[in-house]
Amino acid sequence: MSRKFKCCFLAIFCCSLLMLTACTPKKYIITPSTTEIGTTGNTADRTDHTATGTTESTVHEPSDETAQGKSGAVWYALGDSITEGWTSAKDPTAETGYSQFLNKNEAQRWVNIVAEKNGYDLTNHGIGGTGYVRCKENTMNARQLADTLDFAQCHFVTLAYGVNDWKYAVNIGTAEDIPQTLFAAYDGHKELKLAENTPAYITVYKNGTLLEEGKDYVVGNGYLTLMEDSEKGDILDIYNAEESMVTNMSYVIKKILRDNPLCKIFVITPINCKSVGSYGTNWGIYYAGDATNGLGLEDIFALQKAVCDYYGIELIDMTHSSVVNRENIRSLLVDSVHPTVEGHEALARELAEKISFY
User: Where do the domains of the chain lie?
Assistant: First the structure.
């Protein structure tokens, strides 16, 4: 056999051996990570993969989404106690048979679960006991809270109010309260001509501060006259109705979009409530008793939908079509209002699909 033939044969043999080695699957042992479940960074499913050549397994390369992270969108969550993270649980030792508490484990709150699942950068502005109008002592309602926030760097906002405005029978307003006139007042402009159909009662805010008629302004002969000079850039919001859920909801929407015209807004309507009503009225939805001035959650929903329709805001209907329904409300809201830990998880699974921003 010639030397040249031997060299060719040897080269072919070596190439074949290399190809066979490359095609043979590597063997790995998968060692569970010591990282605790529930810590930040989505570590619940993380494992360490160490090649040892003993246990057969397949290690998948991370997808682009896993490797680079998800949306990263900045989310401001405004709402009441359910947004804040209040939870209920059965408690045989309590006189009521249940307990209510602000869940210190933030990872079990619906907003945090959604943020983790969808990769959002969440700031939770939920305040228990509040609504668009209603607020407890030393707290802020939605309008007052919005005035303290700057939405300029926010990608999207969720507004989840209404159950406290309903439960505590505040003025919710009417659909006719939605249209409003926005004035920009400049230096020396103390008198503003009002629209001909302006009603006798109006509500006026200057740079977010509620003005008092007779003290801060007077109305007469079709004009609104400020008692003090305006400065360039002052903004007057003039509502053709008294303060209500409708006017405050409108105000919050306008404040967000004034700060950031590109901000996406999701309005989340209230989940059902079992504190009044019965199975026959689908609990609070179609309740019409004295406890809430004859109003049901259906009335809250209808007005919130009207506001969303007027401004073109996305509405998420959790009143009629959520995991909380006529049959399971006793199990998911054991205190009649706040979801259990499992209820928060169920709401989060549903809302993670509906609050979509990428």
Answer: 74-175+244-354, 180-239
